[in-house]
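Follow-up to my post from last week.
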Amino acid sequence: MCAAGKYSSRGPALIPRMKTKHRIYYITLFTVVLLGLIATGMFQFWPHSIESTAEWTLEKGSVHDAPLIRLPVSSPIPERGDLSCRMHTCFDVYRCGYNPKNRIKVYIYPLQRFVDELGVPISSTGLSREYNELLSSISDSDFYTDDVTRACLFIPSIDVLNQNSLRIRETAQALAVLPRWDKGMNHLLFNMLPGGPPDYNTALDVPRDRALLAGGGFSTWTYRQGYDVSIPVYSPLSADVVLSERQPGPRHYFILSSQTAIHREYRAELERLKEENGEALLLLDKCSNLSQGAAIARKRCYKGQVYEYPEVLQESSFCVVLRGARLGQAALSDVLQAGCVPVILADSYILPFSEVLDWKRASVVIPEEKLSEMYTILKSIPHRQVEEMQRQARWFWEAYFSSMKAIGLTTLQIINDRIYPYAARTYEQWNNPPVVKWSSVNSPLFLPLIPPRAPGFTAVVLTYDRVESLFRVITEISKVPSLAKLLVVWNNQNKSPPEGEKKFKCPECTAIDGLSLDQTHMVERSECINKFATVFGTMPLKVVEHRADPVLYKDDFPEKLKSFPNIGSL
Amino acid sequence: MERCSRGHMQAKKRYLILVSAGACLVLLFYLGGLQLPAARSRHGRSRIEQPWPHYSDPLQVFLPWDQTDTEEYNLHISPRQKRDVNRSVYKSKRCRMDSCFDFSPCQKNGFKVYVYPQQKGEKISESYQNILSIIEGSRFYTSDPGQACLFVLSVDTLDRDQLSPQYVHNLKTKVQSLPLWNDGRNHLIFNLYSGTWPDYTEDLGFDIGQAMLAKASISTENFRPSFDVSIPLFSKEHPRTGGERGYLKYNTIPPFRKYMLVFKGKRYLTGIGSDARNALYHVHNGEDVVLLTTCKHGKDWQKHKDARCDKDNAEYDKFDYKEMLHNSTFCLVPRGRRLGSFRFLEALQAACVPVMLSNGWELPFSEIIDWNTAAVIGDERLLLQIPTTVHSIHQDKILSLRQQTQFLWEAYFSSVEKIVLTTLEIIQDRVLEHGSRSSLMWNSHPGGLFALPQYSGYLGDFPFYYATLGIKLHPKFTAVIHAVSPLVSQSQPILKLLVAVAKSQYCAQIIVLWNCDKPLPAKHRWPATSVPVIVIEGENKVMSSRFLPYENILTDAVLSLDEDTVLSTTEVDFAFTVWQSFPERIVGYPARSHFWDSNKERWGYTSKWTNDYSMVLTGAAMFHRYYHYLYTHYLPTSLKNMVDQLANCEDILMNFLVSAVTKLPPIKVTQKKQYKETMMGQSSRASRWADPDHFAQRQTCMNKFASWFGTMPLIHSQMRLDPVLFKDQVSILRKKYRDIERL
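User reply:
Got it. Predicted complex:
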């Protein structure tokens, strides 16, 4: 046998050279292998001196090693941010390009410590724990690229989550000196607490040119629909407290108010509601007798009685989330975590991720002015809807609120969906909790259509070797007027199909009249059903007791006048 | 031969090299693989993979505990004041419902719409006339401005292109002089065209004050979210009611059509909106991507014509627009001079998935429609990528996009009525905030116009979402017996019926609707049953009251019965099990059919035994309780009054309604043979059926109903559902529903 030609058509021409040089090949090969092994061994067992370069110390993770950047007073300040910005006007889509995965690439700037001319940092906190978590999770995700030239979206490592800890002007200057800033084009900033005293703006006050803002607490007047992303205010309790999911259902209290900084006008209104409806309402406030500190965040009080927060939220069907100075409230996250239905009273507030989440299925939004009618409004909601909302609320928290990672990646997915809208996640993917995903049935042919008869149908006949019954089927079926095509699938490797009109005799097959009489056959089919059900994870088949017949089937009516007279006559 | 064997040896050696090299590589990977995760866990990833170093310093939290409260702020600013400030600051271009809309009249009187009386001599275009008459005929209409939540002008604002013959002059003074104008507060202004050549601005040429716009071709820049409504551009030929059905008659799999992407339209050589269309030729390949433009439009096209014009024009004439539309998977919808174009609706109707190329267009009804499910939103800047993009879309997705075009077309766009009602419903949803539709209700069958949120906020209370949400149906039904004759003897059919129905294992309760002029019979006159029997005295004793959404009905299913209906327990049981498989349809016994009488040019009604049917009489039918609500609140008073006056046709109207919603025929189940005889025989209501007028009335009803629906919603079916072993040659003892075939 000669097989050489099969491997390479160039074979013969190569042979002389191969022959003289193959010794050298072996030597080279083994050298390479040896070197490779040595290198690997060194990498594996060498004490870590190999990492003691400047870069590696930074890798060890200390923010103090980040380079210090001094901003001159005259350093340029970006423009305030254009309210008319939209993806098609302020976003450079060419940087994202076409890619088969339909996924944007996100670059994160390396950490730098910005200080003003006098050496005072631009932020009192520097990099916060949460922003570090956010950036870490993005850098671990599929969105991440370390190649700045291939990036579609840029995330500065300047932490602007909380405007309170920022020096506005200097932060803006720091943004402007980022090497790829380019008027903020394709830059994304995360901010959860915008504005500051006295009037608390609803969007970050740091001038930011065209940068996109993922903000917690947007109002309809500052939110640039389809450009900005409305995000939740992360609640630190999400990480500290484990609240196990409770079955949806009625709770001890009907309405619970647990926020501590409620304006006195609203608190008075709530007190009035409490007077009218008594025990159904629980109105909690800060505990005055406890010392200040982190512990106070975990306690709430009512007339001297102390309640654990956020655990107490699980005891109520509805939980009030009232606006404070800011529209976005971290309490929303706690409420959702507890599976309590949030009753949101914050006029003009853009709910978190409202671009993709259907809040109507998870919350009740009531205008601030109608706080006094809250009880009546909530009472009118059917029980089963409350249960669905409880389940939905908890699911929203798990999927989109529970960690900085969830918040960050959801934001990126929303932006990704805008850039590749044809590959966007669907409403069902965003909104259906896993339990619905498992139990729902979504037919790929969902449009109610009654197809016309004209195109007819195609008959597909599967056959093994029972030729006689095959021919009987073919003869019968071909009488049907609406038959468009008949397809015979010959499922037998040992015989070739019969040709033309020639008839086969098959003595052994006539002996068995139908496989279904065979006992082992039935057992096998039961096994199949069990196997399939295991793989599907559920039994998708449904039992019905009806059968479709023609309207006049077996009716006492002249057969001649029936459309399908001889059905069931066999 | 010699060369060959040498070659063979060489091949052997090469194998050896390959194998050893492979082995080495495996070894390397193995070692490397072991090493990598170890390194990762110890000190973050290597520089190349992982530049964000997961800082492990003890970092500060972003929200210190002492900052969670903002009490200081609370001391200074009153929320009430803050709301007032917002209301005074955010006006005109920054209008929102919170700042430019007065909710109070809507909360007092519900969502009522007032239309200003038309001034004599005022010229109104046909399209605007249609809009006004639809509002006046809708259930939102009020003739009393004191009751109104929303005001609609009677002066035509549709065409604000100064060069158009429809342009209304002096609009400013006309509007300002309206006594109820109130700076446009709670007013809704419809507009299709604004601005004119050359810049086509979106200005209407008069101060709209705080009024809301329902406008076509509105840009995201000018669109005031949740305040304006973006409507589709429609032609003056667009049907007032009803409207054509979608083009898709059946699904094909795989879902590809002859062309992948088509376009045929004008090319603007210069000026606004010309860029997108001028570049189309780059993408045209004459095979599966056919994008044709013509320069021939306007008076002086020759003046601007460029080198490609003649060639393009020749190619343009070779293709038929309709043919292309119906034979393409995707249809390009590039912007014209304005952002929206007729092409959008045309593509939607033709089940040709629109590929939008109109940057900054706020798509029609964007507030409620998830356009990603029915269109491909392209970017004008990425025109050259469009063919790759559409080719990359998986066929499952195409199948779903295409079906969704048809759903949306029929739900919201096929007639002016639907466009106007959708606009009003969107605004109503905003006004009744907590009782509004979820996105699922708007974007899935049967759509927002048929899913009324005032009925219930819980999706499981509707017949449409059981499958999509995996919700289980209520396992029982409520029987509603419509009683019209006095109770005189204990052998009356109604009593037999009551007993038979109560015996059904699925029966939760029986409601007797006493629509008889005689007073209610004493409680003991009713037979003792295992299920509760509730007797309700009918309001005004009118026919429509049998479909009122009684609060006592707590089950999903309602078994609607006439007092003289003869049914056995088995029949009822069987009907209910069938209905559980088809909760959105009417499932019942006696069926009727409609037909088009071409001699009289009208719809005909027949009760003959035929091979098909399109209605199931509600004297013995099972359907979802939601249809009680829909019958009462969706249908216009005019039709309900007609039914009440004739004391007839209520069943036809119910069938019209349910088929209009489901786009499917009702379902007939087997009945015992005796049914027919009794039904038409000696029973007390035989008089009603024997009356020749009765039949003629039903013909009239049919035509009246069809004209209100704007189309004939009834659909024929040839199918009857029988119990599985019905009349099969097996022992009757093996049959569960054996009574049905016993005579």
